[in-house]
């Protein structure tokens, strides 16, 4: 009986990630859904602002469109990659690095473009940090998927 208890306990704690860190990607999924809501609200704001004759065709409108599109993509990336981090049999250090870089990528890329569209032009200088972070995420995810031992 004791042997069965140990077996089932081990099975529950190591269900997803090889180190038992199946919750690493959860923060990316939560962030992704929350960030998607903000980009949806930005889209609604842009529709309302189209009534304003000075907004149509302005630089602020163009930057908001870019932030809206990139924010949607980066929120979906956080959801999908967060889910994959929960399921891939990779080390917790690699999973944690990917998770953090993905959050930094979204905030510093589309987030800074959004701030730039609201008049904080200095924020635009930080956008390349986010873009480079997203490239690093894709390289690390390629490595993680190529070297994973199993997907659950």
Keywords:
152 residues, mainly alpha, 6 helices, disordered N terminus
What can be said about this structure in brief?
By secondary structure, the protein is mainly alpha-helical. Helix content is 73%, strand content 0%. The protein is elongated, with a radius of gyration of 19 Å.
Query: Sheet with the most strands?
Result: none
Query: Helical content, roughly?
Result: over 70%
Uncertain stretches of 5 or more adjacent residues: 3-16
Rg over CA atoms = 19 Å
What characteristic shape results from the CA principal axes?
A: elongated
Q: Count the helices. How many?
A: 6
Mean pLDDT: 86
- Cα end-to-end separation: 27 Å
How do the helices and strands follow one another from N- to C-terminus?
HHHHHH
Strand segment count: 0
Strand content: under 5%
What class would the helix/strand composition place it in? mainly alpha
Describe the structure.
With 152 residues, this protein is mainly α. 73% of the residues lie in helices and 0% in strands. The chain contains 6 helices and no strands. The chain is elongated, with a radius of gyration of 19 Å. The two termini are 27 Å apart. The relative contact order is 0.15. Residues 3-16 have low confidence and may be disordered.
């Amino acid at each position: 009986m004791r042997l069965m208890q140990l077996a089932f306990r081990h099975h529950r704690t190591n269900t997803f990630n090889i180190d038992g860190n199946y919750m690493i990607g959860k923060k990316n999924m939560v962030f992704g859904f929350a960030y998607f809501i903000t980009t949806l609200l930005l889209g609604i704001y842009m529709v309302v602002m189209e009534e304003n004759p000075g907004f149509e065709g302005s630089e602020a409108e163009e930057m908001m469109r870019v932030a809206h599109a990139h924010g949607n993509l980066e929120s979906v990336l956080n959801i999908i990659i967060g889910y994959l981090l929960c399921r891939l049999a990779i080390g917790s250090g690699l999973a944690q690095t990917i998770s953090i870089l993905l959050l930094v990528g979204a905030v510093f890329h589309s987030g800074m473009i959004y701030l730039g569209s609201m008049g904080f032009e200095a924020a635009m200088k930080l956008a390349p940090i986010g873009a480079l972070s997203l490239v690093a995420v894709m390289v690390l995810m390629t490595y993680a998927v190529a070297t994973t031992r199993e997907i659950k």
